[in-house]
Amino acid sequence: MPAPPPTPADGAKVVLAGWTTFPTRTDAEQFASAIVESRLAACAQVSGPVTSYYIWEGKSQRDEEWRVIVKFLPENADAIALHLRTVHPYKTPQWIVFASTQVSQDYLNWMLLEKRRP
Known about the structure:
Blueprint: E1 16-22, H1 25-37, E2 43-56, E3 59-72, H2 77-87, E4 96-99, H3 105-116
Antiparallel strand pairs: 1-3, 1-4, 2-3
């Protein structure tokens, strides 16, 4: 089991931000909508298209993709990663997560309120 993300010295709760890409806008929007509607994420933003350059199976690739940036609480990290692996059309989807070093109290309060709201 991975170690929990760090907590700032003042005891404030950490917010995580993660991102991935999808091959189509529709795929990206469906993922973003599903994780927000299920309350796994407080917010998900779809942007693009972006052009990605990468190596896949030894060959240089260039593809148009749609980026999804997700903001969520640490307790939802595993569920979001599982959902992503379940629905993503790529064999190896990108999922990169960073812990915040500072979060405004108003934003954190909003995240916590919406998570509890039915």
